[in-house]
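Ops channel
N.P.: pipeline sanity check, posting one input/output pair.
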């Protein structure tokens, strides 16, 4: 499981883990509880350039479809292919195996504008 104290969070319930110039993005425990049973994840295209706040992915549940936004600007470096076959990983392990995508962060200082775990809670 990711160390929640090192993650950054958005108001739209995404989390960001930065490691050097790469950021890993997923949804928070709160988000997966609200979404409930995930049945499909539309992943972003590798190489797509996103600005902070831009829609990056879509999560579909038995309730509705929910947009997932890029917490910072960057280029999609990889996607979690396991979500194609096992979208419920978003429910069972939102901070671990349920990560959604990684991106090459355009400006590392942008992540400092996001909330800490304490601020998010």
């Amino acid at each position: 499981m990711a160390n929640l104290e090192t993650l950054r969070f958005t108001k739209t319930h995404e989390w960001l883990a930065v490691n050097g110039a790469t950021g890993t993005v997923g949804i928070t425990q709160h988000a997966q509880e609200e979404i409930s049973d995930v049945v499909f994840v539309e992943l972003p295209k590798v190489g797509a350039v996103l600005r902070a706040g831009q829609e990056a992915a879509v999560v579909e549940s038995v309730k509705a479809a929910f947009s997932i936004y890029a917490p910072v600007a960057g280029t999609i470096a990889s996607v979690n292919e396991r979500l194609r076959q096992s979208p419920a990983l978003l429910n069972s392990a939102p901070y671990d195996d349920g990560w959604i995508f990684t991106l090459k962060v355009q400006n590392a200082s942008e992540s400092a504008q996001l909330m800490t775990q304490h601020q998010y809670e």
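N.P.: looks fine end to end. The CA atoms of residues 37 and 62 lie 6 Å apart.
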